[in-house]
Design a protein that fits this description.
By secondary structure, the protein is of the alpha/beta class. It is built from 16 helices and 10 strands. The strands form 2 sheets. A 5-stranded antiparallel β-sheet has the order 2-1-5-4-3. A 5-stranded parallel β-sheet has the order 7-8-6-9-10, with helices on both faces. A hairpin with a 4-residue loop joins β3 and β4. α3 packs across α6 and α8 crosses α11. The longest helix has 21 residues.
């Protein structure tokens, strides 16, 4: 049985933080049939709670279309009207029965700050294709995988149920699912579960990525050195559950904001290369392609995913828009942040790259990059 809760208050401090049941102050209402939650297209999976072995669902107004939003997890939080929890056993048993057309399934992977939201909004223009952009249930699955607390079979069952439940909210013939950058850690599992699905990987030059990240996540708050260190410690602890290269740094070794951003990029790039070496195929797209040849890039991406429509009018229109408009990561918001890379920052990045055996240049070209395939 599932449990239903009334939302008394929404208390998430950072709208960009990872989704959690702790984002809400709740009052229990009683038990409900798990099937009525999992099969309800207006109850979306918000988080995966490993500690309590349950899925966290939020109910939203039927008029709210989560599958057109640039950030699924933000739209879920802002539009949640109640919370429901479903035990893993029920979630897996019910989720595996939900339909999913594997040949019309696309995963968008990314370093972040590389055009992935634009890519997902391009897919959202297609008839019969639902766009699920950054559901944090995937982030929880990454942390669950990295924790080693579930064996491979149980993790696979939970992941399959999660993907099917996410797709059920946006019940269309095709589905495009874009995780946050660390969802790359699930790339091998996705390939095993859905071998006929397609995946694309978007990335950019490390130095431009770092500058873009610093600008995007600068909240404009003036902090003391002590407050900054406390903030960085929290971010590091969060990312350590998601990104192996950050987890592997000894706790006594300090990491700056630039170090954390650089290691985030390296973790994702390194995982992509390792997946490629294992035969996991993705089409890689360098961010510069969206700048130099946006139409051609969009067409090539859609063609690779077997989703190229006859009429590209809506796709071309999407290329002219800010895919993150209306959010704290919109172009207008980011432009207001007067942040630049200092010489010391560039040296930090160079030092990180110098320690890498393969990805040791900021302009590393990922294998199978569009326009550079051999």
């Amino acid at each position: 049985m599932a449990t239903e809760y009334t939302i008394l208050d929404k208390v998430k401090e950072n709208i960009l933080g990872q989704a959690s049941v702790g984002d809400f102050v709740l009052r229990e209402r009683g038990a409900v049939d798990s099937a009525k939650v999992v099969e309800n297209p207006h109850a979306s999976l918000y988080a995966v709670d490993l500690q309590n072995q349950q899925g966290i669902f939020v109910q939203s107004d039927p008029a709210v279309d989560l599958c057109v939003e640039p950030f699924y997890y933000i739209a879920q939080y802002e539009n949640a009207t109640r919370v429901l929890t479903v035990p893993f056993a029920d979630m897996i048993a019910l989720g595996r029965k939900l339909p999913l057309n594997e040949e019309r399934l696309v995963f968008i992977q990314s370093t972040g700050r590389a055009g992935s939201t634009l890519a997902s909004q391009i897919f959202a223009q297609l008839d019969g294709v639902a766009n699920i952009s950054e559901p944090d249930a995937l982030s929880d699955l990454v942390a669950t995988q990295n924790s080693g607390l579930l064996d491979k079979a149980d993790l696979a069952a939970l992941t399959d149920a999660t993907v099917r439940i996410l797709a059920n909210v946006c019940a269309e013939g095709g589905h495009v699912i874009k995780g946050r950058s660390y969802a790359m850690e699930l790339g091998e599992l996705f390939n095993e579960l859905y071998p006929r699905a397609r995946s694309v990987f978007l990335y950019r030059n490390l130095k431009s990525y770092t500058l873009s990240s610093l600008r995007a996540y600068d909240d404009g708050v003036q902090r003391s050195d002590e407050e900054n260190q406390e903030l960085l410690a929290g971010i590091r602890a969060w990312f350590s559950t998601l990104l192996p290269m950050i987890a592997d740094v000894p706790e006594e070794q300090p990491l700056s904001a630039v170090d954390i951003i650089g290691l985030q990029w390296l973790s994702v790039m390194d995982r992509y290369v390792k997946l490629h070496e294992k035969g996991v195929e993705m089409l890689a797209i360098d961010y510069q392609s969206w700048i130099d040849a946006p139409r051609e890039t969009a067409e090539a991406m859609l063609d690779y995913c077997n989703m190229l429509p006859d009429d590209l009018t809506a796709v071309y229109a999407a290329l002219k828009q800010d895919s993150q408009e209306g959010t704290v990561l919109s172009r207008s918001e980011v432009r207001d942040h007067d942040t630049w890379l200092k010489t010391a920052d560039l040296l930090e990045l160079d030092d990180l790259l110098a320690q890498q055996p393969l990805i040791n240049t900021a302009d590393f070209v990922a294998p199978n990059t569009l326009g550079r395939q051999r």
